[in-house]
Amino acid sequence: MGMWVGMGRKARRSYGFDEVALVPGESTIDPADVDTSCEIGGIKFQVPIMASAMDGVVDVNFAIATGKLGGIAVLHLEGVATRYDDPGQAIERIIGCDVDESTKVIQDVYSRPIKKELVEKRIMEIKAADVTAVVSCNPQVAEEFGPIARDAGCDIFAVQSTVISVKHEASAYKPLDLYRFCREMKIPVLLGNCVDYKVALTLMGTGCGGIFVGIGPGTACTSRGVLGIGVPQITATCDCAAARDFYCKKTGQKIFIITDGGMATGGDICKAFAAGADAVMLGNAFARSKESPGRGYHWGMAMPHPSLPRGTRIKVGTTGSLEEILFGPAQTDDGTQNLVGALATSMGNLGAHNISEMQLVRMIIAPSIQTEGKVYQTAQRVGMRKR
After folding, report:
1. For the domain that residue 289 is a member of, what is the CATH number?
2. Contact assessment for residue 98 and residue 76, using Cβ atoms and an 8 Å cutoff
3. Fewest CB within a 10 Å sphere: which of 49, 55, 207, 380?
4. Does residue 102 form part of some domain?
5. pLDDT score of 64 more than 90
6. At residue 88, what are phi and psi to the nearest 5 degrees?
């Protein structure tokens, strides 16, 4: 499978959100009658859209506000929330610096050591508000932070890195045993990120509750440019969803698939579910909310790397409240608000009663879907052609 790209070398064609479209079928449903909820590790969420573990997006207050609305916000355990007693001061340094100095400033802000007591404190602050606590860290510190988070009341623990694998080699430190970690945590563990069928299938065998799909598609991420790695999100999601279905058929266990990054509009989110996602993770969309700690600024998770930053600080602006972004009413014409409403309406038009049925709708390759008939929108930079 694939096309020749040179003598003796084939490459497979892959697809992103702008290259496909969804095809309505023989029946339609009133959007009020569809079910957009999802379930992770026995915990049900009314909103299948997760806010990513990025400091410009999620802090304790944002996590609480999202939880109150039925959604999921992931707190980064290696971010400013666990390095500073007052994270707000660190955020102010980042969003207040000149663009040419942003990388250096962010590297300096994140050079402050993590305080283990703050890991426990932040989770307890979220739990005190009676909402689900979901946190994330990279594999190198997961074994240390996992038990602290679990004992503090964490409900779901995510282990995320640019690329994760079961077979990781390192001479400077002991690699995390994902099998043992998932078994000993006693709470749902999510692993990421990956983009490949075989890798996804191997990760599912660890006993995790879900996997994140996506390498480098985020708005503020530059890993694809710096490292040259990644797979467009439609193909990556389809492949990992196929691994989920095979694993479920083989074991009877369904592992959650979360498409992480690359989605700018409600339409992109709908396509991710049609490609096989059980939930999606967004950063940019939530960074635009009034409740986000970055106040309209957003920066890549790998940007603080001391020697090879793979992110950038961007200004996305503040366009509305968290509730408007999730449930409307939309105040913009570009599909970046009322995301749950967009998903429900799309599901209704496609005849999908729930997320499982949404994963079965017909998809076509349609590279002109973003431009066909949109000459005025393109010229005036409004609606679909605003970005």
Report:
1. 3.20.20.70
2. no
3. 380
4. yes
5. yes
6. -60, -35
